[in-house]
Amino acid sequence: MSARAIDHLVLPTSSLNTARERLTKLGFTVAPVGVHPFGTANCCVYFKDDTFIEPLVQQQPAAIGEAVEACNMFVIRDEAYRSRRGQEGFSAVVFRTDDATADHAAFEHSPYACGPMLEFSRDFVDATGKADKAIFRLAFAADPRAPDFFLFTCQRVASPKVDRSALQDHSNGVTRIKSVILAAPEPSHVDHFIRTISRFEEVEVPNRKLVYQLANASLEAMTNQNLIHFFGVPSTEDRGLQARVVVFGVSDVKATEHLLKSRGVACEKFAERLCVHPAPGQGAVFAFEAA
Fold first, then answer.
1. Which run of H or E residues covers position 105?
2. Cys bridge to 284: 73, 90, 94, 158, which one at CB 3.0-4.6 A?
3. Measured between alpha carbons, how far is 172 from 265 in angstroms, rounded to an integer?
């Protein structure tokens, strides 16, 4: 089987208003609020490669409690992340799939089973206010040694018939998610987990890191200490696997740098890459490099 493609990334936040303000300042076009039937809500940022980032907030405490009791793994893992890491962060990488049911069956026969599947629908609203229904089916996987990170596959059972093009244009020039950076004390310990779920077999090992070339992006795992070398991120002593950096592909790095500085956004340059450290509403390091 070929390597999977990234579908989207989950970024917990304490406030969608704060996330919208921060992401807009960074030059992203942010979609209208989307409400889930189990108490969470989002304000997504969509890209031309059909991926997106999902700032996620807990909006309805009563519904959250009911979802936990119903063994809704999306909510359970989000709740666990917030209780351990706080309200801002980067909790999950989501892969695209055409058959979440088959994925769930495969996960159940691996060491990474993570509870029942989830199917749900929500309204989607485009930039003009036109609405339609989206239906998703999710299959979850997690490594017991990584309580602050999980993977799941997302099947778009029904896609809304709306025009996303206006939501995919960003003044910072971002066109796609180019790579996602994970960190762990010993990346080789999580290699089997990542390979099993991503379906990528031949792992490259350049510059002291593991690189998984997926269908539409790369997934990289490195030590916490190496984050400072590649992205200027202070190392931590955290155990387990952490999602730390999103690398975006942009059409013109210099234009992106000019926009960020004109808006008072602090950014550092590492080689040909711009790095913006986390802030409220931005739970991960955001890096920008040539698409």
1. helix 100-108
2. 90
3. 12
Which secondary structure element, helix H or strand E, spans residue 253, and what is its range?
helix 253-262
Residue 113: CB partners within 8 Å, gap ≥ 6?
107, 141
The arithmetic mean of pLDDT across residues 35-39, rounded, is: 94
Helix 73-85 × helix 61-69 angle, to 10°: 120
Q: How far apart are CA 154 and CA 54, in angstroms?
A: 13
For the record, the structure tokens of 53 come out as 């980032």
Task: Walk me through the domains of the chain, giving residue ranges and CATH numbers.
Answer: 6-167 (3.10.180.10), 171-290 (3.10.180.10)
The CA–CA distances, whole Å, from 120 to 69, 123, 126, 137, 274 equal: 17, 11, 19, 7, 37
Which ranges of 2-99 would DSSP assign to H, the alpha helix? 16-25, 61-69, 73-85
The answer to whether residues 285 and 231 touch, using CB atoms and an 8 Å cutoff, is yes
pTM across the whole model: 0.94
If you average pLDDT over residues 157-181, what whole number do you get?
91
For residue 272, count CB atoms less than 10 angstroms from its CB and return exposed for 0-12, middle for 13-18, buried for 19 or more: exposed
Distance (Å, whole) CA 223 – CA 221: 7
What gap in Å lies between CA 139 and CA 109, rounded to an integer?
13
What pLDDT was estimated at residue 127? 72
